[in-house]
Sequence to fold (65 residues):
Amino acid sequence: MGKQRVLVLCTGNSCRSQMAEGWLRALYGDRIEAYSAGSDPAGYVHPLAVRLMAEAGVDISGGRS
Fold:
């Protein structure tokens, strides 16, 4: 059986869902495929989310909204 797929959905897909996707990939990337999306995408990943996750050792700088 292939990897389970997980979609994290929020409004802008610029912060919360991007961070959740980053954590899912970092913690369970060998078992799942993680994705994020937004109902009204902002078009960018918030720089503070990128910085906070980098401080925690998770790179989400390549994320797309």
Observations:
- The chain has one domain: 4-55.
- Residues 4-55 form a domain with the Rossmann fold fold (CATH 3.40.50.2300).
